[in-house]
From TrEMBL:
One of its GO terms (cellular component) is cytoplasm. GO terms for molecular function: cysteine-type endopeptidase activity. Residues 28-295 form the Peptidase C14 caspase domain. This is Peptidase C14 caspase domain-containing protein. It comes from Wallemia mellicola (strain ATCC MYA-4683 / CBS 633.66).
Amino acid sequence: MKRVKSQQRTFGPHNNLKYQYSECTGNKKALCIGINYVGTSNELGGCQNDADRIREFLIKRCGYKSENIMLLKDSKDLDESRQPTKKNMFKAMRWLVKGAKLNDALFFHYSGHGGRTKDLSGYDETVFPVDFQKLTYVHTGHILDDTLHDELVRPLPAGCRLTAIFDSCHSGTALDLPFIYDSNGDIKEPDVLKEASGELFSHRLPNGMIAPLHDAYYFSKRLVTGKAQDRKQKKINFSPADVIMFSASKDTQTAADAVSIDQNRDKDFSFIELLNAIRSKMEGKYTQRPQLSSSHEIDMDLDFVC
């Protein structure tokens, strides 16, 4: 077992960014959201069950108390205050992070529809409350990844853990975290080369001929600005808190299945083991590969505790 000590660490080009791991020995709070969109053309199956399974996993395996877990589901068994409307989701997220402090452990789980919408820099990923179609304007119905980051990540102090799981399509950067890890435990660099070369071959003169000199300049400039933008984004979205996010595509089998793979397992997963367990569970079934992202660089061999 490889457990972490909660001490301040630094990283960055000038060691000017400070963060702190959580020992997860303080208060524990969780928010589980499962939306089936019952009775609509967007109806899903299993999302409410996902939320129930995660709740059970947190109580049985992670030491959470039932009174400290808020459950939002579009179920007739729950009253209006526990329906996953946009208003209730915002209230619940603010409840989750309120009063957070060093070594606390918070848990957020969302199972439902996800999507993405174009913005000035590319695309924002989104999640959809149960009432997203009933709100006045279509684009106010969803919740953007920038907003999720502001609500769930930005308020957290150094050394507070937030573990988040998104079981939805287009959920890879749902919290806008700056570091994404591959199955070897290495940080994935943004594919600026692929993005820039795609723009190169699409940048043509009106007669269909490529302008080689202009495009060579444009290509090299895009590489430089793309890498610079990535460094800038890491700094903007960096958090001194200890935020870990798992994301997976929504379908009949989800990350909820894999996180609770074996509640009788006699030892903890490491981060890398859990990521690969989720991927193995879902291999060959989905186009979107599950991934792990974080608010700071992490040691993927550390035990996963929440």
